[in-house]
TrEMBL record:
Substrate binds at residues 6-13, 56, 78-81. The keyword Hydrolase applies. SMART domains: PGAM. The keyword Manganese does not apply. It comes from the Bacteria. GO terms for biological process: negative regulation of glycolytic process; regulation of pentose-phosphate shunt. This is Fructose-2,6-bisphosphatase. GO terms for cellular component: cytosol. It comes from Slackia heliotrinireducens (strain ATCC 29202 / DSM 20476 / NCTC 11029 / RHS 1) (Peptococcus heliotrinreducens). CDD domains: HP_PGM_like (cd07067). Keywords: Hydrolase. One of its GO terms (molecular function) is fructose-2,6-bisphosphate 2-phosphatase activity. It holds the Pfam family His_Phos_1.
């Protein structure tokens, strides 16, 4: 089975700033969230933990699965927001407000990674770990949009439904491995 977790809170999350691929650590709240996630996961004995290279995801992985070596995979990094990184989410630019209003029908503004690219790289990661997840439990620590890309890949019938879904800090989804691939993802919290 595969477990997918979004990183805990950072100071930029608490200030509603778009952090994207900039590298920021967990704050105290984020560390507590990761500890609570570890309790929610319970007695799962992960054979492998994968993480985005960004500090907040690495910290979350190490707290959620203590003692298990973490393998960094760049395909799990957050969406590249380009010139919009650092933007105040309470006062987005007009083009970002339009993008946020309907992710499915509005392409990402110029200079940003497109959602199809996020799904493609996250899907390639899932295909690479499929056999491993068939044999053992695997934890994946990532970011909100990258996590949505993983979920979209796992459930293509959603037709973009995950893009508008709120995924909070340390939200966890699981997906069992079934004949032919992964089952539909299920939210733990």
């Amino acid at each position: 089975m595969i477990y997918i977790i979004r990183h805990g809170q950072t100071d930029l999350n608490s200030k509603h700033v778009l952090q994207g691929q900039s590298d920021h650590p967990l704050n105290e709240v984020g560390e507590r969230q990761a500890q609570e996630a570890a309790l929610l996961i319970g007695n799962v004995s992960f054979a492998k933990v994968y993480s985005s290279p960004l500090t907040r995801a690495l910290q979350t992985a190490r707290i959620a699965a203590p003692g298990v070596p973490v393998v960094v995979d760049r395909r799990l990094i957050e969406m590249d927001y380009g010139p919009y990184e650092g933007m105040d989410l309470k006062n987005p630019s007009p083009e970002m407000a339009e993008f946020f209003s309907d992710f499915v029908h509005n392409p990402a503004p110029d200079g940003m990674e497109q959602l199809a690219s996020v799904v493609e790289r996250c899907g390639a990661f899932l295909e690479d770990v499929l056999e491993e997840a068939r044999a053992t439990d695997v934890l994946v620590s990532t970011h909100a949009i990258a996590m949505k890309g993983l979920l979209e890949y796992l459930n293509p019938q959603s037709k973009g439904g995950y893009w508008s879904k709120f995924i909070g800090n340390c939200a966890i989804y699981t997906a069992k491995v079934v004949e032919g691939g992964f089952a539909l993802p299920v939210e733990l919290r």
